[in-house]
């Protein structure tokens, strides 16, 4: 988890964060779970650039700019714990202190029949779609200021079970090359007339084309650093190809079935000379683009200045509750209020995944006056006052 800087009159304030995970509708949660404390003193060969002192776990070498890069980083890997009974939820209480330029992030993963799950940021809560029989935690420390380090004093974990899991998932995600559409005044494949600073995207297949005025097919497009994202509907077809649904399995993919899933044909043509370096129309492919971005998405949502690689989630391949952005582009905030920094935009009509909701600043919007804020992903919140409808399940509190 990333701990905020807090100060008393004499020193940085110890921050105790109770990271409660997503409650889920259905029968009541288990009254109590299995509890244990991670032994942070057992630093061994599995751990990188951390040490344990009387004040807690900290970076062994907090100097940025070495071979590790511009940020010093260290990782403590706790021993896996075999649970007395399978669980679907893990909660953490962390006692830590952080100063400016440092972070301390706690993550967990779970073991099931198919192997380990991905690491889950404990800030958002680790709720697993299937029961796990073992749990492992890790602590990741970073420092961007020379000599500074966060100190983690204790990590206490609880594993229990909830009846069902309805947390929203973004679905398939691939890194592809993005180009800018432009073409103001022209008409898209679904009949939309492009306006200046428009907010939509294009994919090289009609299989993911949304009808005009809907977000039935929506992408989450993020910069590779994750600092900016936009949720935008798919309203056009391109670039290069029109029959390249590269996000689908080979058995389903319309063309180019021998390419790896997630690899656009244009990228293979440009980088590897696939199909003689030409697209489906025989044109020489001049860039590896797998997605086109309208000007508003490109300049305002992602704040790009030139074509770039981006991380794209094809949201209709995910699951869980979705909210329809009825009025936008809507600012995505890092917290539940308009005073928080923006992390990007959600375009009008975009169908966005809603993990859970929190109570924050009251907002008067076109659909309601409410203090509810929907969390779309880690540090991404939108006011419910601008969401016209929710479908796909009940949204739980965070």
In words, what does this structure look like?
The protein is mainly β and 398 residues long. It folds into two domains: 15-160, Jelly Rolls (Sandwich), CATH 2.60.120; 166-398, RlpA-like domain (Barwin-like endoglucanases). It is 4% helix and 41% strand. It contains two helices and 25 strands. It has helices at 265-272, 295-301; strands at 15-19, 34-37, 50-53, 56-59, 72-77, 81-97, 102-112, 115-116, 120-121, 126-143, 151-160, 173-180, 201-203, 218-223, 229-237, 289-293, 308-314, 322-325, 330-333, 342-346, 351-353, 356-364, 369-377, 380-383, 387-391. The chain is globular, with a radius of gyration of 23 Å. The model is unreliable at 1-31 (pLDDT under 50).
Structural class: mainly beta
What's the β-strand tally? 25
Indicate the CATH class of the largest domain.
Mainly Beta
Low-confidence stretches: 1-31
Report strand %. Answer: 35-45%
Rg value: 23 Å
Please outline the helices and strands.
Layout: E1 15-19, E2 34-37, E3 50-53, E4 56-59, E5 72-77, E6 81-97, E7 102-112, E8 115-116, E9 120-121, E10 126-143, E11 151-160, E12 173-180, E13 201-203, E14 218-223, E15 229-237, H1 265-272, E16 289-293, H2 295-301, E17 308-314, E18 322-325, E19 330-333, E20 342-346, E21 351-353, E22 356-364, E23 369-377, E24 380-383, E25 387-391
Parallel strand pairs: 12-16, 13-15, 15-20
Antiparallel strand pairs: 1-6, 2-11, 3-4, 5-10, 6-10, 6-11, 7-8, 7-9, 7-10, 12-17, 13-16, 14-15, 14-17, 18-21, 18-25, 19-20, 22-23, 23-24
